Amino acid sequence: MAEPDDLSPEELALVDEAVRTGMRRRRILITGYLISLAVLLLGLPTALYYIGSSGRGEWAAPVMLAPWAAAGAVMWCFGRWSRRAARRA
To answer: What dihedral do alpha carbons 55, 60, 64, 65 form, nearest 10°?
Structure first.
């Protein structure tokens, strides 16, 4: 592997830009993971409460899919955003 002293200024700038792009993409993805975790931590107990408070003969099981769908949508949106940010750089 080449030492930083052996690289030309153009090559150093290229490596620096690649590292910055990767870090930006990872930061966006980690933010998406944390937001989807918050969606799950708030959505699952809410869905359980809804199921528990629904009527005796009422079928409310599909409500449990909503938090998972919301978390998946959040991760999908942040994944698209990170790919778009990497392409722009």
So the answer is: -160
